[in-house]
TrEMBL record:
Membrane-spanning segments: 32-51
UniProt keyword Transmembrane helix present: yes
Protein name per Swiss-Prot or TrEMBL: Transmembrane protein
UniProt KW keywords: Membrane, Transmembrane, Transmembrane helix
Length: 53
């Protein structure tokens, strides 16, 4: 019973290890994308006169 648990956790570790580079890239890009998006939204709101800067 413990062998199955150990084997599946080892397999899970390999899966996580393979997914980690993409997760790091995603985590690094998300704040950048959010900031760019908000900058665009604010620029549009200023341009149409809804928000004063």
């Amino acid at each position: 019973m413990n062998d199955q648990g150990g084997g599946s956790s080892a397999k899970c570790w390999v899966c996580r290890k393979e997914a980690r580079p993409q997760e790091l890239i995603t985590a690094a890009i998300n704040p950048f994308v959010a900031r760019v998006y908000m900058t665009i939204v604010i620029t549009i709101l200023i341009a149409i006169g809804v928000l004063k800067h």
